[in-house]
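ok so I'm stuck.
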Amino acid sequence: MAKDFRFGLSVRFFKSRAALEQKVKRAEDLGFDILTVPDHLGAVAPIPALTAVALCTSRIRVSMYVLNAAFYKPALLSRDLEALDVLSEGRLEIGLGTGYVKEEFEAAELPYPSAGARVDYLQHMTTYLKEHHPKVPILIAGNGDRVLTIAAQHADIIGLTGANVRGTDDDPLTERIDFVRNAAADRFDSLELNLAITAVPAEGETVPDLSMTRRYTQASDQELLAMHSVLTGSPREMADTLSEYREKYGVTSFTVQDNHIDNFAKVIAALR
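replied:
not stuck anymore, here's the structure
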């Protein structure tokens, strides 16, 4: 039996408490299941923002896409997450990643560990948080073998990018999901597969703005439009695409940026 869809909205900035409350209440009314906040210097602070979201909503879940694990000590982060879980009345999901922006570490006056050390710390953080928050779902997002191995063996939700890590696979999403399946073994059927959507057409259009997607790759426009994380077409056509992703890949959770709330709400409506 196919798993139900879940849809996340990522909020990076807001101008006032009233503006945030208006947006998240609307997201809840439009059928979004999860409100997420990223973890970058220069953007909103995740824990305070999600606390505000939790206090002005009743259904939508709260999460991070994703916390930079290397920014935190496990016990201190655990304390903040415990408070957020209580204030949200059990609607918390924990999103974790390794962190990758060297300039942010420098701005925070923190050492920038090697890639291997950051993955090691992600595993340490995951182990600690699973022990202290056993009932809270954990999402781990990434694309490399070691991060996806940790996710497959310890997380509840796998955050996929659909990117081609080797430059040779015709269907990189299948390759990464097969990797997760092998690493997860008998855990795989219980996992939720999430895909971060980086581009959605504006209302009334069928081709999206690719500026966000370009931040992560030097590919051509044609190659970008072919990526799984980029949606094209009408809301009905995008809904059909996501239905295909569920049937072909088992991906049932999708996260979009908040500037896509209006058009993507039509996709949600078409799928429910």
